Amino acid sequence: MSPKPSDVVANKVGICECRIEDLDSSIRHLWMCLVKEMFEIEPITIPSEANSCKWLDFVKEGLPKKRNILLTAKVDEKTVGFASVTLPREGVFEVQETFGVVNDLYILPEFRKKGIGKKLLNECLSRIKAEGFKRARISVLSADKKAIQLYKKTGFKVFMYNLTKKL
Question: Is residue 1 predicted with pLDDT exceeding 90?
């Protein structure tokens, strides 16, 4: 029997690195949940079956090349969150330092505010550092105040602003 979300604490959560064979419908479902929440804040990426397949293909293609890392947060056997990392090893321009990028971080709503997101984010940062990167970058929608609060608590600072204009 799985514990109730209210009983879960971060030290009971397992963080697992996904291999290609681990990628299943539960991971795609979590990505769809993330995109649906983001779409409600700022309608950009359409939460569609086609897009979830494209995302999964992107992750699958990058895992064996060590370009992507996908981590999951599990409580007992239930996957309650995930984080996706990209490790860009080549760029068009020469740069002072490269960044490991946390692309996505998502925790099911009923498991939030229990330290799981922080634990998952810290594991992302550890993996990025272990791969030789000196900096990590994460993007967040400006209206996602709770995520911004988590990232700032973890030591992230504003690096750049992206501005948009509806035409």
Answer: no
84 token code pair: 């996706």
pLDDT in tens, 50-79: 999 999 999 999 999 889 999 999 998 889
- Sheet with 99-107, side-by-side order of all strands: 13-17, 68-75, 78-86, 99-107, 135-138
Q: In the 8-state DSSP scheme, what is residue 111?
A: G
The CATH-assigned architecture of domain 9-89+97-153 is 3-Layer(aba) Sandwich (3.40)
CB 124 within 8 A of CB 71: yes
Extents of the domains making up the chain: 9-89+97-153
* DSSP H helical ranges for the chain: 25-41, 49-62, 116-130, 145-153
